[in-house]
Automatic annotation (TrEMBL), chain A:
Residues 130-199 form the COMM domain. This is COMM domain-containing protein. Signal peptide: none annotated. It comes from Magallana gigas. It comes from the Eukaryota.
Automatic annotation (TrEMBL), chain B:
PANTHER family: COMM DOMAIN CONTAINING PROTEIN 2 (PTHR15857), COMM DOMAIN-CONTAINING PROTEIN 2 (PTHR15857:SF0). InterPro entries: COMM, Commd2. It comes from Magallana gigas. Transmembrane segments: none annotated. This is COMM domain-containing protein. Residues 123-190 form the COMM domain. Coiled coil: none annotated. PROSITE patterns: COMM. Pfam families: COMM_domain, COMM_HN.
Length: 199, 199
């Protein structure tokens, strides 16, 4: 069975198993749980106390609570990933066996926050490094131990690069003399023009 | 199969033959705590004072008990083998009963602790990927070169490491084909025969 919200692939078996657990709670509790899960996905922190209160009525064990959070996270994140609209997601979830009210409330939460989810997923996509800040300084070399009169300008550059894994920012500093700097600037301008052509 | 005790081990355990079964029970409890959480020398002091013996004797006694329990759990001795093995140590009937009870109650837990201590190789933790198209470079404008960038997260005894990999789509297809063939190998008659015989 091909599902749009799974990217035209089969739905994973464990999600099918969790649908029956999700059907056990009322649709209002499902909506509240969706709100909590979306907050967790946007890295705003999940309030486990509220989650326990919500699932207490349906008498979920700790394994069921974990499973339902995982299933909701998967459904919402893959729907945002494949850019499905709420209507499609609702239909497909009903095909999987989720009752109509649950599917509608889930899709309402999804449609409300799909933009924010997609923006968040875009920022957390794979990136090798981030350029945080650039600092520069133009110096004028008067003389050196090799030559008495040098009289040349040069540029000192310091780039602050952030590693997304560890979050630490390392400074990369180097010095460029006048001609090389002109070439560097020219090449970067050409790259910028090429990027502008595409946006 | 029977446990063979070294002379030093027998000497350490001989201290326990001279004390009452309640003390042996107390020592067994201390040994289990140590197996779970690590040794605590202060307890030896307290016990040594109460029994009027050297700290060293108490220390050796507890360690001897710990070794006895871990070796028997490791080899998965059944009741009869365990009783035959401790017969040679000179304990009286009550002590032997106590030791047998403690062994049977705790062997599963000891086996779980031992299994967590095995050698760990770097294993898979997470894989992020990104699909890029290279449009131009300093040397050549107007290209369209697709590439796939991977960040493989591995974990080795608690330490996380990341590896950056890059491939073109043809190579990626080949990679998935080879890995798929490796998975299918499990379903070949040869592997099935071996798995049946292990079970």
């Amino acid at each position: 069975m091909k599902f749009r919200f799974c990217g035209d692939l089969d739905c994973p078996d464990w999600v099918l198993a969790e649908i029956s657990i999700l059907s056990k709670m009322t649709s209002i509790k499902m909506k509240l749980l969706c709100v909590q899960v979306i907050k967790d996905m946007l890295s705003e922190g999940i309030d486990y106390e509220k989650v326990y209160k919500i699932t207490q009525d349906a008498k979920f064990e700790i394994g069921d609570v974990k499973a339902s959070i995982a299933a909701l996270t998967f459904i919402l994140s893959s729907a945002a990933k494949y850019n499905c609209d709420g209507e499609t997601v609702s239909n497909e979830l009903q095909q999987l066996g989720l009752p109509k009210e649950h599917a509608t409330s889930l899709c309402k939460s999804y449609s409300d926050s799909s933009d924010r989810l997609q923006a968040h997923l875009r920022t957390t996509s794979l990136r090798l490094s981030h350029l945080e800040k650039t600092e520069w300084r133009v110096d004028y070399i008067l003389s050196s131990s090799e030559l008495k009169e040098v009289n040349e300008p040069c540029v000192q550059m310091k780039l602050h690069v952030r590693n997304p894994d560890s979050g630490t920012t390392t400074p990369v500093s180097f010095t460029v003399d006048m001609d090389k700097f002109r070439i560097l600037l020219n090449e970067l301008r050409q790259a910028e023009k090429m990027m502008d052509n595409f946006t | 199969m029977l446990l063979m005790f070294e002379d030093q081990h027998k000497e350490h355990l001989s201290f326990l033959t001279q004390v009452s079964p309640d003390v042996v029970k107390e020592f067994c409890r201390i040994s289990m705590e140590f197996i779970r959480k690590g040794t605590n020398p202060k307890i030896f002091q307290g016990a040594a004072q109460k029994l009027n013996v050297d700290v060293d004797t108490v220390h050796h006694g507890v360690e001897g008990l710990m070794y006895l329990l871990t070796e028997s759990s490791k080899l998965m001795l059944n009741e009869i083998d365990f009783q035959d093995s401790i017969m040679t140590l000179g304990f009286d009937e009550d002590t032997r009963q106590t030791l047998l009870e403690i062994y049977l109650q705790n062997r599963r837990e000891i086996r779980t602790i031992l299994s967590e201590m095995t050698m760990d190789l770097p294993h898979y933790h997470n894989l992020e990927w990104r699909f890029d198209v290279q449009l131009a470079s300093r040397s050549l404008r107007r290209q369209t070169t697709p590439t796939v960038l991977f960040k493989l997260h591995t974990e080795d005894s608690g330490v996380k490491d990341t590896t950056i990999l890059q491939t073109d789509p043809v190579n990626l297809l080949h990679l998935t084909k080879v890995l798929d063939e490796a998975l299918q190998e499990m379903k070949s008659p040869y592997c099935r025969r071996i798995v049946r015989n292990i079970k």
